[in-house]
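## retry 2 of 3
previous attempt timed out at serialization; input unchanged, resubmitting
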Amino acid sequence: MNEQDLAEHFLALLADDRPLSDYEELRKGAGPDEQAAADRVHALALRARGLREQDRRREAELSALFDTVADLAALKDLDDVLEAIVRRVRTLLGCDVSYLSLNDDELGATYMRVTQGIHTEEFRNVRLGFGEGLGGLVAQTARPYMTDDYFADERFNHTRPIDSAVGGEELRAILGVPLLLGRTVIGVLYAANHDARPFSRADVGLLTSFAGHAAVALDNARRIRETQSALADLKQTSELLQRNVEGVQLASVAHERLTGVVLQGGSLDDMVHELHQVLQEPVHVIDAHGATLASSAPDDPPAGAELELVSIAFGDSGTHVEGGVSIAPVFAGGAPLAAVLTRSELDDVSRRILERAATTAALIMVVQRSVSEAQTRRRADLLVDLLVGRSGAGSLTARASLLGTDLAKPHAVLVVDGADAQLKQSAVDLATNTSGLSADVGERLVLVLPDVVPLEAGRRLALRATSASNVPVGRAVPTVGAAGPVTGVDGVRAAYEEASRCLDALLALGRRGDVADAATLGFVGLLMGRHDPGDHVHARLGPLLDYDRERGTELVQTLALWLAEDRHLARTGERLHVHPNTVTQRLDRIGRLLGDGWQSPENLLELGLALRLRSVLPDSHGAPAGGS
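## retry succeeded, writing output
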């Protein structure tokens, strides 16, 4: 077979894309004279076959690169782009792992962003300083680098963290190319193998081309993200402007409504109603003691936790927001008067409206206080004139009627010693709320209250002074003298004199902090000439007299003889012809009927005087007690 025939046979193998073994078999089948020609034609055929394989590979790479670029162009999300880049690198180069790092110019390092085929967290979290390791050198120089055996390659600055991460993944052959935007390195794209499998120049070229397209896709994704962020910011700004316009309109409406309440002389209830209409939230006005002054939801008062927030809000003059509650304190003259509260965390506009409402509430309360103080002064002046007789009864009755006080009704008169400012304010409130009168007369507080029992009214007033939670330790308890009920100007004057004498008697007897009228002063009250002797006897001995009458016992007689015998049990028993134990039993019964403290010197004196008085009264008040 001549050389031309051999060439035709090798061309047929090329055309049929036969395997390399067929080429070798054809070469060996040539005769001795044909061997040189067969070797020459075989070499040319293999060369042609290699070029064709290279073209095929190049065509496949370009096709894959084209598909990859098309895929990258279709992706908009930055994370999706990065994942696609790394995944395609591993596919195109047929490498074991691929990964991508992004540069942090401020820190002078490149950090792992996306990996494929990596298993250790140490590798995923490694950072390569510029100039450290293969990747750091690529990031610093903007040039590709590759190595067949990373750990044996002295070109790179080996650091313990980088070598530990690479060793943990058992990587040897590594190729890294820069991701370039113009002349700026934004990251590094890698391909790596677990064995010492070298990367070819074609691999470097392919990865470099791919990195160029990847960098553009990456930049596009970044720009899209920035554009989307800018659009989102623009939309947010637009919405904010819209809310501001709506807020200005809402604030204008609130200003008009609140101003209208003040100009029309409205109350806190009117203000709360208008504020509820604006905010569409329940609104409450709470005073410094936690009492509700006004509310748009009276059936749903603030709870204890909310009242605690009110006390916290009084610590400053700004709106306090906590736990879904907004509170604006109401200040006047530097002192907290109240707080406006709503159960919602308000936005800035609504918060300013709430603060404006607090200012409106302060103005309303100051005006109301001024009116109240003027009314209080008029009531006080009337009471002083009534007690000292500065005007006639007709004039005083007419003035009282203008203030809503009807002196024709029964009134109790209370005279108080030791009243502090808080109790005086409570007395003013009590008199105002009941259409009564109150005033300081000398150093004492005087109250004239309609339709109440004098003694009970005095006790309630004293209780009000001692039950407040903020009563200072050691504060004197007020002493109250009571009289009445009486009617008319003359009756009030007489009751005032009697209540004053009762108060003087309490102080003289050392009974500070007590409340009494003439009846409860016992014998002292009787000497004041205001009460029936029989009523006095029954007030002291009534429980014993009733018991003896109902059961036929002799408790009153036993008490009289026991006192007459200087409380000696044996002599009392002899007088009664009973055993001393019986006397003891009767005294126990007397104690249960008269109550604790009945054997105090003061009470025994009152009982003895009542027994003596009973002995001289007519039978209508009880027969005289024998031996008393």
